[in-house]
Design goal:
1 helix, mainly beta, Adenine-n6-DNA-methyltransferase TaqI, Chain A, domain 2, about 90 residues, 8 strands, single chain
Length: about 90
């Protein structure tokens, strides 16, 4: 890294928001409710594309957020962020 960059913990430069999966019975493919981004399959080359929706949304991204997914079986860790399950979606604000 050059002199213009420095290493800092992620939580010092961004607010990290962990995603939350609503109950499966609220999911649909008809576009009812809010888009539900569950993992890497919804991420295209430049932006996510929702294929599943939920009628019980609880967390939303905001314009300018950076979304990323930690993928793996069991516990997943990325720069100190912890998630359980097959995929965990995070937002940086």
């Amino acid at each position: 890294m050059g002199n213009e960059w420095s290493m800092k913990p992620l939580e010092e430069v961004a607010h990290v928001v962990m995603g939350y999966s609503p109950k499966a019975e609220t999911y649909n493919n008809e576009g009812k409710g809010a888009p539900l981004l569950n993992g890497p399959t919804e991420f295209g080359a430049h932006s996510p594309r929702a294929t599943v929706f939920t009628t019980d949304p609880s967390r939303f991204s905001e314009p300018g957020d950076i979304l990323f997914c930690v993928r793996g079986k069991g516990d997943a860790t990325l720069y100190g962020l912890r998630g359980k399950g097959d995929a965990t979606l995070y937002g940086l604000r």
